[in-house]
Amino acid sequence: MEKVFVSRNNTAAIKCPNCANVKMVSVEQLKGKAFIINAKCPCGAVFKVSIDFRRTYRKSINLPAHIQMLARGGGWLAVLVRNISKGGVGLVLPARYGIEVGDELVLQFTLDDRNHTEIERKIVVRLVDDSFLGCEFIGPVQHEQEKALGFYLMP
Q1: pLDDT of residue 5 exceeding 60
Q2: Which of 45, 94, 117, 155 is deepest in the core (most CB within 10 A)?
Q3: Residue by residue, what is the 3-state secondary structure of 2-59?
Q4: Radius of gyration for the chain, computed over Cα atoms and rounded to the nearest angstrom
Q5: pLDDT tens-digit series, residues 22-59
Q6: Domain boundaries, the chain
Q7: How far apart are alpha carbons 60 and 67 in whole angstroms?
Q8: Following CA atoms 98, 102, 112, 82 in sequence, which dihedral angle do they give, to the nearest 10 degrees?
Q9: pLDDT tens digits, residue range 97-112?
């Protein structure tokens, strides 16, 4: 399935996986509705396209990490970082740990980039779905970490 990201003017560049033809398509009418559409290229190829209305690119990853709950103190808990963007991360927990929306945590992990960049950021939980947490980065960021994350997220 092809995945496309929507620009600020609600258009998406859809690229045919068969012939590499690219067509700019308005997705205004899909906003808030469908996220997967069927596309047909003039070459005859039919394929599914996933439309992502996120503000920033989100990269799927699978990296070990640790979190610490700020309000409760205590030790570090092992988690997995499943996706990352400039604005936040998606985490998978081995157990619920009683974490709720609005909880602030410290996240530590190492990127699998060439420099093995260590990331430590404060995050706030925005979504709890069973063992999955959707979190937003908050607070100050070190310039080197932000720069490394920017390069890491380049498609």
Answers
A1: no
A2: 117
A3: EEEECCCCCEEEEECCCCCCEEEEECHHHCCCCCEEEEECCCCCEEEEEEECCCCCCE
A4: 18
A5: 888 888 777 766 567 888 999 999 998 877 666 667 78
A6: 2-52, 59-152
A7: 19
A8: 60
A9: 889 989 999 999 999 9
pLDDT band at 128 (very low <50, low <70, confident <90, very high): confident
One-character DSSP codes across 76-97 = -EEEEEEEE-SSEEEEE-SS-T
Q: CB–CB of 108/117 below 8 Å?
A: no
CATH of 59-152, one of 3.40.1190.20, 3.40.50.1370, 3.40.1000.70, 2.40.10.220: 2.40.10.220
Q: What residues are paired with 109 via a beta bridge?
A: 65, 119
CA separation (Å) from 124 to 59, 100, 120? Answer: 19, 10, 13
10 class by beta-carbon count within 10 Å (0-12 exposed, 13-18 middle, 19+ buried): middle
As beta bridge partners, residue 84 has 59, 89
Nearest to 129 by CA among 87, 155, 91, 85: 91
| Two tokens, residue 46 | 């039919």
- Give the predicted TM-score (pTM) of the model: 0.66
